[in-house]
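Most newcomers find our protein records easier to grasp once they have seen one. The structure tokens are whole numbers drawn from a learned vocabulary of backbone shapes. The record below serves as our worked example for the rest of this section.
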Amino acid sequence: MKTLKDVSCGETVKVTKLTGEGPVKRRIMDMGITKGVDIFVRKVAPLGDPIEVMVRGYELSLRKADAEMISVE
């Protein structure tokens, strides 16, 4: 199973599932990241934290721990 953390710069992927629970999952969903949405990975910091993405026309910065909870294809 591939997560957002494994995606390279410049790739566009589709969200298949959100893992995690409670406030963390709620925070990810509040960012507009839901099942079926496309995410474009703009930039990944040298150590992998943060990951900058484009979702629904917005630029977002995600922590590596949050990116691990987003399954993609």
User: Anything to note?
Assistant: The mean pLDDT is 93. The longest helix spans residues 22-30. Strands lie at 12-18, 38-44, 51-55, 58-62, 70-72. The radius of gyration is 11 Å.
